[in-house]
Design a protein that fits this description.
Blueprint lengths: L24 H9 L10 E7 L2 E9 L3 E8 L9 E2 L1 E2 L5 E6 L7 E8 L5 E4 L15 E2 L10 H10 L7 E5 L17 H15 L3 E4 L3 E2 L12 E5 L6 H13 L3 E6 L25 H4 E2 L4 E2 L6 H17 L5 E3 L2 H5 L21 H17 L6 E2 L21 E3 L1 H12 L10 H4 L10 E5 L11 H4 L4 H17 L3 E5 L24 H19 L13 E8 L4 E6 L8 E6 L5 E8 L4 E7 L15 E3 L10 E7 L3 E7 L5
Parallel strand pairs: 10-11, 10-21, 11-14, 14-17, 17-18, 18-19, 19-20, 20-21
Antiparallel strand pairs: 1-2, 2-6, 3-4, 3-7, 5-6, 7-8, 7-9, 12-13, 15-16, 22-23, 23-24, 24-29, 25-28, 26-27, 26-29
Helix pairs in contact: 1-6, 3-4, 6-8, 12-13
Length: about 650
């Protein structure tokens, strides 16, 4: 066995000139202080050169270990030949050996100071892992030649608050599988070719991947993460995943990664009880165990854990060029009593229910990621009324760019699931969100959460016969795309998959052989095109001045009408929605200007599977006041349909 002291290693340099893998006194100070946000450049396994010897440097945090050794394929899994050395009082152990090479499997054998505890642990900073159930770390690097400079240079404009952002939410294992081997996954590179073509054709601006961080239990969809610095090896290598992101960027498509710092799996082969103590998690189960998911909660108040989590957020933005993170289950992080009965939770130092350490972590994470990677956007899945989630940290907010509007999702789906005859009694479900629509920067999600666990698919929620269900789906999507806020749609919804999402099989792509599904898909593509092309539908997505009701009170007819506005009055879009199967003729609507108003979209058009009822392409405004506006349009409102109008500027 060969080993060396770290001081004698001439380390490989990263692009900033900092030495990779060599722990300096400053590194140790910032790590223990909770302010080291590039730990992946120091901990884990790194290829280094010592004199003329090329080898691998290892560093792991295990402050309560008596001894730590390295075992793997390079030493026949011998637990007692390659011992690491403690680095001062930092709790970090390190070692350098020439034997471990790229592709070698390894684990740390940790001998705790307490209870005679002995355990073999994968590397918390491992970059690549064996597939479950074995799960050893793999010595690897992240060398990759990126070709997405044009995207990276322009993404700040493409992801600004006034840009069109329409997100296609994807689970990689079940979006598509090979027709020749339906039980086998496509790899990252195979997915890349297909996904890029599809997302471009459909007009989405972004994809959001359900968690790709390594998770041995496939059925968790990635939400039971064990290895935070590695994309799952089910679909290939880290470089294969980089290729997928690179290809999407080259096509002008942004990539959001679902990220789960709210809890982690209890599995022994993960972070849990790492060195014989509750190192990453709270020791007190009232704070450290999540009652809903039987998982561990990070100890956000521990400074080294803060460094770990913020470094992980930075890692995916830095090394994988991700364009933002969607942070899962933020509400469960914010409140100490989340899902806990009275007497089973610990109040904060002021006697309140807010998790002050978690709030600090979220603010630090957002501040660091936005400062380090201008142009990214982070999204919060936050289901309560916690204030200023998407407001900057310096004004007291949590610092996210956007917050999911869970209230809109639940209210709208409840309304759309009702028989139209009953909708007039629940009219508030589709109008209430405008009372709070601009208190945050919202994203409107129709996410995976709504098509699992017996909830049925989106189209299965729609009432009525076959035709009415598809009409209601077109109407639902039209309402989403015209409401203020960015958009998110889970895969399969765009073509009306009937079956509830099943992660074990591909989407039912064969349904596109049937006309109603193909025409619904065409409608979603047309909505994406309109949303991107018409400034009024996106430039004021987060500001009051971009929206005005015309009439939100016609509950008897279950009709709503409103305007979306841009910087120029000529960009104004007038939208009318009929939530019943009864056509409305000579339906009078106020308009802000005279002349001809062109029908630019009609969800009841034949090409989208509708009945063909409409306004013959345009209507002429008359000079009489209506709804407090100086002009009137006499519209035909098709059944279970939306119609959009834009004034012809040639009439000026």
């Amino acid at each position: 066995m060969a080993s060396s002291t770290i001081d004698s290693i001439a380390a490989v340099k990263d692009k900033t000139g900092a030495a990779l893998g060599v722990l300096t006194p400053e590194d140790l100070h910032y790590f223990n202080e909770g302010s080291h946000y590039r730990l992946y450049q120091r901990l884990g396994a790194h290829f280094l050169k010592h004199d003329n010897t090329v080898g691998t440097y290892f560093a792991v945090w295990a402050p309560n270990a008596e001894r730590v050794s390295l075992m793997g394929t390079f030493n026949d899994w011998n637990k007692y030949s390659h011992y690491l050395h403690p680095v001062g009082e930092s709790g970090i152990w390190e070692g350098f050996w020439p034997e471990p090479r790229r592709g070698d499997l390894y684990k740390y054998h940790v001998e705790s100071r307490y209870h005679g505890y002995r355990v073999d642990k994968p590397d918390p900073f491992g970059l690549y892992f064996e597939q479950a159930p074995r799960g050893a770390s793999i010595v690897w690097d992240l060398d990759y030649q990126w070709h997405d400079s044009e995207w990276m240079d322009t993404r700040a404009d493409r992801q600004s608050l006034d840009a069109p952002i329409s997100i296609y939410e994807v689970h990689l294992g079940s979006w598509m599988r090979s027709p020749d081997a339906p039980d086998a996954f496509l790899n990252y590179r195979q997915i890349a070719e297909r996904l890029v073509e599809y997302v471009q054709r459909m007009g989405f601006t972004h994809v959001e991947f359900l968690p790709v961080m390594e998770h041995p239990f496939y059925g968790s969809w990635g939400y039971q993460t064990t290895h935070y610095f590695a994309p799952t090896s089910r679909y290939g290598t880290p470089q294969d995943f980089m290729y997928l992101i690179d290809l999407l960027h080259q096509a002008g498509i942004g990539v959001i990664l679902d990220w789960v710092p709210s809890h982690f799996a209890k599995d022994e082969h993960g972070l849990a009880f790492f060195d014989g103590t509750h190192l990453y998690e709270h020791a007190d189960p009232r704070q450290g165990t999540h009652p809903d998911w039987d998982s561990y909660i990070f100890n956000y108040g521990r400074r080294e854990v803060l460094s770990f989590l913020v470094s992980n957020a930075v890692f995916w933005l830095d090394c994988y060029h991700a364009d933002g993170l969607r942070v899962d289950a933020v509400a469960s992080m914010l409140y100490l009593d989340y899902s806990r009965p009275e007497g089973t939770w610990v109040p904060n130092e002021h006697g309140g229910r807010e998790n002050l350490a978690a709030i600090n972590f979220l603010r630090v994470m957002n501040r660091e990621t936005y400062n380090s990677f201008p142009g990214i956007q982070n999204f919060a899945e936050e289901s309560t009324a916690y204030p200023m989630v998407s407001r900057p940290v310096h004004v007291g907010g949590l610092g996210f760019g956007f917050k999911w509007d869970m209230g809109w999702m639940h209210d709208t789906l409840h309304y759309m699931s009702l028989d139209p005859v009953h909708r007039k009694y629940h009219h508030r479900d589709i109008t209430f969100r405008m009372m709070y629509a601009f208190t945050e920067n919202f994203t409107l999600p129709l996410s995976h959460d709504e098509v699992v666990h017996g909830k049925g698919s989106l189209i299965a929620k729609m009432p009525g016969d076959y035709w009415q269900r598809f009409a209601s789906m077109r109407l639902l999507f039209a309402y989403m795309f015209t409401q203020p806020g960015k958009k998110l749609l889970f895969m399969g919804g765009e073509f009306g998959q009937f079956q509830e999402w099943n992660h074990d099989v591909s989407l039912d792509w064969h349904l596109l052989d049937f006309d109603p599904h193909a025409r619904l898909q065409r409608w979603v593509a047309r909505l994406n095109d309109c949303y991107r092309r018409e400034p009024a539908l996106h430039v004021f997505d987060t500001e009051q001045e971009g929206f005005a009701w015309i009439d939100c009170n016609d509950m008897l007819n279950s009709v709503v009408t409103f305007m979306r506005k841009g910087h120029d009055a000529r960009d104004t879009i007038l939208a009318a929605f009929n939530f019943t199967p009864v056509p409305r003729y000579d339906y009078r609507v106020g308009a802000p200007a005279g002349g001809e108003w062109r029908e630019i979209l009609n969800s009841d058009a034949l090409e989208y599977g509708g009945s063909g009822v409409g306004n013959l392409g345009a209507v002429q405004a008359t000079t009489e006041e209506c709804h407090g506006l100086p002009y009137t349009l006499s519209l035909t409102l098709p059944p279970l349909a939306a119609v959009f109008f834009k004034r012809e500027t040639s009439a000026d």
